[in-house]
Amino acid sequence: MRVVAGVPVLFGATTLLGGLAVSWLLARPAGPDMVAVPAAVALGVSVVLLGLGVLPTVDAAPSSRVIGALAGVWVLAVLISAWVRTAERSGIDVLDVTAGDFGNVLTSDAPEMVALVAGLLILGWTVLDLLTGVEIPVLVVGALAAIGVLATSITGHAGNSAWGPVLVGAHALAAAWWVGLLAALAMSVRGRSGWARSLPAFSSRAPWAVGVIALTGIIAGLIEVDDLPALVTTGYGRVLLAKVVVLAVLIGVAAWHRRRWLPAVQRHRTTEAASIRAASIELVLMAVALGLAAGLSATAP
């Protein structure tokens, strides 16, 4: 059954990059640069870490080893992102980047430094949890991941307006909670009774997250796009429109699951494998939306 539980993660990673590829196709030639690839991976991993960190709020517990492994991937993705960004800023090949140039770009890019420090602190938490008797609540992992998500989401063109960082930050945190916690459930919850405990708690709070995502996304999009024709005439507008369509489909699927999957889980009529499959459907759509969001953040309005 653990093999089945890993399927959402594999599909999620693939479809996240697929969403990023779609954003490139829609926005070219003004689409995201190559740095968006490691940045998207870093975003996806930080979102899952946030979800794992807040699992206790829905009566579930994550694996410390999984948290440590993902934190390592997060740190590596951030470093690669900084390395590729160094090459782009210097106008040189990635293999020609020097350690000095890399250090200068990394230390001058506050969001990447915040994400790097957050990832390293989570690695430190994992070491303490696995190798010592020190007990630090796993919610700390969720808080550190949230700081990383927030720091990277409010940079770029989000800062072009006074309310941009607030709107984009709230949008990113609500999306990270929704996506990350569902992914964490699929990775961590076992048995019918486990899903019967955790899914209702998640489902009762999800509408609030969806409401924040929809409201802040609409307002932020209207701020960035000058007029409605720009939704189809500009690369940024086309990616934004695609993200809205995917989000609308996702909300529809989530509403269907709320009417069918949730009651069956509450009555212990759904197996663990069936719950993971249902979660996987949502996670695939969520990953596509995350990939589009990563591409959107790297595309000029």
TrEMBL record:
One of its GO terms (cellular component) is plasma membrane. The chain crosses the membrane at residues 37-55, 67-84, 113-131, 138-156, 162-185, 206-223, 235-257, 278-298. InterPro entries: CopC/D, Cu-R_CopD_dom. Pfam families: CopD. Residues 197-296 form the Copper resistance protein D domain. GO terms for biological process: copper ion transport. It comes from the Bacteria. It is a multi-pass membrane protein. Keywords: Cell membrane, Membrane, Transmembrane, Transmembrane helix. It is found in: Cell membrane. This is CopD family protein. It comes from Gordonia jinghuaiqii. The lineage of its organism: Bacteria, Bacillati, Actinomycetota, Actinomycetes, Mycobacteriales.
